[in-house]
Amino acid sequence: MSWGVVLGAIGFWLAAWALNAWLARQTPKGAAGRRALGLAVPAIFGVTLLVLWEGITRGANVPTVLLPPPSMIAERFAASTGILWADFKQTFLQAVLIGYAMGCGSAFLTAIAIDRSPFLQRGLLPVGNLISALPIIGIAPIMVMWFGFDWPSKAAVVVVMTFFPTLVNTVQGLQAAEAMQRDLMHTYGASYWQTLFKLRLPAAAPFIFNALKICSTLALIGAIVAEFFGTPIVGMGFRISTGVGRMDIDLVWAEIAVAALAGSAFYGVVVLIERAVTFWHPSVRGQGS
C-alpha cells in the first residue's frame, strides 16, 4: 500500500471539506452570487470524492475488477465514445424519451377523464396503485415477449413505470384549487373547461411537474433494467450486463457515468421547464430572487 498517496487524498478531502463548510456559511446578497455558490459547493464536493476515490484505489492497489480508479474510467470513456453513443441512442433517445412521453401524456389525459367521472376515480385509482407496485423484473420479461427485443419493449416498461405516478399526482393536483376559487369561477358562469384551464390546471402544475421530475429518473432506470431481459447487441443495460460478465468493469463504469449524466440532464431540463411555466409559484419566485 502506498500510504503517501492515500494520506494525500485524505488530506485533500479534509481541506476541501473545510472550504465547503466555509462556503456553506456564506450568504451572498445578489441572486448571481447565490447561484454561483449553489454550483460551487456541489462541484467542489464532487471533485473531492473523485480525488479521494482515485487516491484510495491507487494507493491501496485495489483490483480494477472490484473498483477501477476514475482516471481509468475516463480513459475508457474517451476510447469508447462510439459504443457509448450507440448505447445512449438506443436506450435514452428511443426507449426513455418515447416511453416517457407516452406514459406521462396518457396519464395526464386519463387524469382529466377521471376528474370528469367519479366512477373512474373510485374504480381506476385503486387498480392503478396496485399495478404501480409491480416490480420491474416481473413486467420487463413480459414486455419483451409482447413487443420484441428492440426498443419498443423497453419503452413499454417505461410507460408502465411513469404512467401511475403522473396519474396520481395529476388527480391530486386537480383538487388543489380552493373551494372559494371554484365558487368564484362558478359565480362568473365559467364552464368546466374554462375552470379547468384557467384555474385548476395552473393550481395543479406544481403537482404535475413533481411527477414529471420523479418519472424522469424512473424512466431511465426502467429502460436500463428492461434491457437485462433481452435486447439487440446495443444499449446501456446490455452493455452493463455483458461488461460485468466479461470483467470489463471500466466500460461498465463508463456506461454508469453516461446514464448518470443523461439522467441529471433530463431532470435539469424538466426543472427549467417547470420554472418557466410556474414562474408565479412562491417556490419558483423564491429561487429567482
Keywords:
single chain, MetI-like fold, 2 domains, mainly alpha, 289 residues
Describe the fold and architecture.
The chain is mostly helical. It has two domains: 3-62; 77-288, MetI-like fold, CATH 1.10.3720.10. The chain contains twelve helices and no strands. The radius of gyration is 24 Å and the shape is flat. The protein starts with a helix and ends with a helix.
What is the distance, rounded to the nearest whole angstrom, between the alpha carbons of the first and last residues? 51 Å
Question: Mind telling me which CATH architecture of the largest domain this is?
Answer: Orthogonal Bundle
CATH topology of the largest domain: MetI-like fold
In round numbers, the mean pLDDT is: 86
CATH class of the largest domain: Mainly Alpha
Number of domains: 2
Radius of gyration over C-alpha positions, nearest whole angstrom: 24 Å
Give the percentage of residues in beta strands.
under 5%
| Backbone shape | flat
**Largest beta-sheet details:** none
Structural class: mainly alpha
Low-pLDDT runs of 5+ residues are: none
CATH superfamily of the largest domain: MetI-like
Number of helical regions = 12
Helix content: over 70%
Write a compact overview of the structure shown.
The chain is 82% helix and 0% strand. The protein is an all-alpha fold.
Per-chain topology:
Elements: H1 3-24, H2 31-59, H3 70-79, H4 81-116, H5 118-132, H6 136-147, H7 151-174, H8 179-187, H9 192-226, H10 236-245, H11 249-277, H12 282-288
Helix pairs in contact: 1-2, 3-11, 4-5, 4-7, 4-9, 4-10, 4-11, 5-7, 6-7, 7-9, 9-11, 10-11
